[in-house]
């Protein structure tokens, strides 16, 4: 990823195709994350652990903010996305119990 985009060498269609590829990768990563979260839920269920782990959620949010800063992305946006992912995983965990 370069710091300055070179728009002279790339057409709008090429840029849109790149965004489509990135979007596909994002969905793939969300699917992988959901699979692992489902596995975590199964382990919690087997061990009779609570669905919510506020300490772990705080660590996830802290990492999200740190990664946002590392990649120069709006930390509030990244944290909002992660909050949504966490909440969706908790809903799924509750429903599967």
Automatic annotation (TrEMBL):
* Annotated PROSITE patterns: CHORISMATE_MUT_2 (PS51168)
Q: Does the keyword Isomerase apply?
A: yes
GO terms assigned for molecular function: chorismate mutase activity
Residue ranges occupied by any Chorismate mutase domain in the UniProt entry: 6-97
- Give the record's keywords alphabetically: Isomerase
Supply the name of the protein. Chorismate mutase
**Source organism (scientific name):** Halorubrum ruber
Task: Extract one GO BP annotation from the record.
Answer: chorismate metabolic process
* SUPFAM superfamilies to which the protein is assigned, alphabetical: Chorismate mutase II
Among SMART domains, the record links this protein to: CM_2
For this protein, the record's PANTHER family field holds: CHORISMATE MUTASE
Spell out the residue ranges making up region: Disordered. 46-65
Q: Does the keyword Isomerase apply?
A: yes
Higher taxonomy: Archaea, Methanobacteriati, Methanobacteriota, Stenosarchaea group, Halobacteria
């Amino acid at each position: 990823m370069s710091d300055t985009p070179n728009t002279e060498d790339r057409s709008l269609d090429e840029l849109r195709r790149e965004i489509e590829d990135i979007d596909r990768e994002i969905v793939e990563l969300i699917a992988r994350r959901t699979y692992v979260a489902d596995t975590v839920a199964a382990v919690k269920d087997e061990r009779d652990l609570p669905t919510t782990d506020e300490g772990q959620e705080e660590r996830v949010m802290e990492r999200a903010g740190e990664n946002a800063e590392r990649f120069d992305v709006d930390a509030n946006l990244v944290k909002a996305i992660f909050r949504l992912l966490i909440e969706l995983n908790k809903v799924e965990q509750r429903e599967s119990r």
